[in-house]
Design goal:
Layout: E1 2-5, E2 15-19, E3 40-43, H1 45-48, E4 60-63, H2 64-69, H3 94-104, E5 127-129, E6 135-137, H4 138-146, E7 165-166, H5 168-204, H6 211-226, H7 230-236, H8 239-245, H9 253-263, H10 270-276, H11 279-291, H12 294-307, H13 322-333, H14 338-354, H15 359-364, H16 367-375, H17 384-397, H18 401-409, H19 413-420, H20 426-442, H21 444-453, H22 456-464, H23 470-484, H24 489-496
């Protein structure tokens, strides 16, 4: 076990490490000629030159670059230049480098632990040191002190001085370490941008055919997926229009699946969307939605969702195609792939909300039993956003007469809807009650009785006493009144399953 705390001696000592001899296990790192029963003092290179390698009592002195290179400070071994001077003025801002690395997904896996603020558990930008020797991010420790606390957050020692000292040595080391990773990231980005441009140009030349074309598309897809910044390069070089031109009646599934996967990742301009909405290209996408792999199906659903964002240019007959709707229902029905269920439900929800004419068609294709099956207690639980999408679709479908009948006749449909009240979220509760309202109005004697037997009355009373919004409570009150019409007061109270106190 290693005990670590930052020490400050005239503002220069960066870290003090001690491996206690009272533990039998070996130290978590090794260093030649070091007995970890004694302290290690880590200083800037300029200071170690003035001090002996060993101090009185067996303590050791290491220069900062060596300590970080060999992983003594944590985060694993790394390579740093010998620490000398503060960062040059033309180097990027540290905070901007951290933000760009994090946004790109290129942030190093392990930041040395000495760079991490013990309060925020994030890399420090402006490290300062307390009188106890512990180093923190300035903003966080100042907030701690401003709250009237006079103890060290890490050691809980009482502070005999609340002055914070800038740890310039550690600040420069942090900047140097992140600068190296940032430089490597920029170099890789330039390389992949150039490679992406070359691949798009090769496709444009039409000289690549057959399996070579498939391999080129696979490489573009890999680069776009791993490096989000490449999306702009592909988009600005006319990539979307070029890729859209590869979809046609004679396009193989091998080429089509790669093209759709890339297009689903890109920002499409108006012209590219218009090209993709041509009947021949929509037919290819629909075929892959029905017959492709799960990844291809998800890409097809995502691409159609993107096309529907431009409502003024989108043609409603595209989503009115029974083949497309059947493909989506198959995607939702396949419980082996949660990503397929999620993308399929998202598109079905968008279609129902923006294209009301498809609701009756969905009912005719058997959408209601499929959706109710996803809510069944025997099915694997769905994430809250998926449950909300299912109930949103059922709410839209129940606004048409054939939809109400389908929900009414669906086995265990009413029981599943009652179960969703006060179970997932307020939005789900609202959707469930709206569907039950439509169905109970259609057949109050049959449906209201089934709902009350499933525990609806007690749940509605719970909603009315909860912190839900006024609209939800109003619907609960209306539904409770509708359900009580066929019961005497005494019988209805017994159906509510209330305790004597609440009565």
């Amino acid at each position: 076990m290693m005990v670590s705390c930052t020490q400050v001696l005239k503002g220069e000592i960066i870290s003090y490490l001690h491996y206690s001899s009272c533990f039998n296990s070996p130290p978590p790192f090794s260093y030649p000629h070091f007995s970890f029963q004694h302290p290690i003092y880590i200083l800037p290179y300029s200071q170690t030159a003035k001090m002996p390698q060993y101090l009185a009592g067996g303590a050791h002195v290491l220069d900062l670059a060596t300590a970080v290179k060999d992983g003594v400070l944590g985060g694993g071994p790394t390579t740093l230049p010998p620490f000398a001077a503060p960062p040059a003025q033309n180097q990027p801002d540290l905070k901007r480098m951290m933000e760009e690395l994090e946004a790109s997904g290129e942030e190093p896996e392990e930041v040395p632990s000495v760079f991490i603020c013990p309060i925020s558990l994030e890399p420090m930008v402006d490290p300062v040191t307390l009188c106890t020797g512990q180093t923190y991010e300035r903003a966080h420790i100042q907030m701690w002190l401003a709250m009237g606390r006079r103890t060290c957050p890490t050691t809980m020692q009482e502070l005999w001085d609340d002055v914070v000292t800038p740890n310039k040595t550690l600040s420069c080391l942090i900047h140097t370490w992140f600068s190296q990773h940032y430089t490597r990231f920029k170099k890789r980005a330039e390389d992949v941008h150039g490679r992406a441009s070359d691949l798009v140009s090769a496709l444009r030349g039409r000289q690549i055919k057959g399996q070579a074309r498939v391999n080129t598309l696979k490489e573009i897809k890999k680069i776009v997926t791993l490096h989000p910044s490449v999306k702009k390069v592909v988009g600005s070089s006319g990539g979307p229009a070029l890729l859209a031109s590869l979809l046609g009646p004679f396009t193989s599934h091998a080429v089509g699946s790669e093209v759709v996967a890339i297009l689903a990742e890109l920002q499409l301009d108006r012209d590219s969307r218009s090209v993709l909405m041509q009947p021949g290209k929509i037919s290819v996408i629909t075929d892959m939605l029905n017959e492709g792999t799960i990844d291809t199906k998800v890409s097809c659903a995502t691409l159609i969702q993107t096309l529907m964002e431009d409502e003024s240019a989108f043609r409603s007959e595209i989503v009115s195609s029974p083949s497309l709707l059947v493909g989506l229902l198959r995607l939702v029905k396949d419980k082996r792939h949660l990503n397929g269920i999620s993308s399929g439900l998202a598109l079905l929800k968008t279609i129902c909300i923006n294209r009301p004419e498809t609701k009756g068609l969905l009912v005719g294709l058997g959408a209601v039993p499929h959706l109710m099956d996803l809510l069944s207690p025997s099915s694997n639980p769905l994430p809250p956003d998926c449950v909300e999408s299912v109930l949103n679709i059922l709410e839209e479908i129940s606004t048409v007469s054939e939809g109400k009948v389908a929900v009414k006749e669906c086995k265990n449909g009413i029981q599943n809807l009652v179960r969703m009240i006060m179970r997932v979220s307020e939005a789900c509760t609202k959707c469930s009650m709206n569907v039950l309202w439509e169905v109970c109005q259609l057949a109050p004697d049959e449906c209201a009785g089934s709902a009350v037997d499933a525990g609806l009355a007690a749940k509605l009373l719970l909603v009315m006493q909860s912190g839900c919004g006024s609209e939800v409570k109003q619907r609960s009150s209306e539904l409770l009144k509708l359900c009580s019409l066929n019961y005497t007061a005494t019988l209805f109270i017994s159906k509510c399953k209330l305790t004597r106190t609440i009565q």
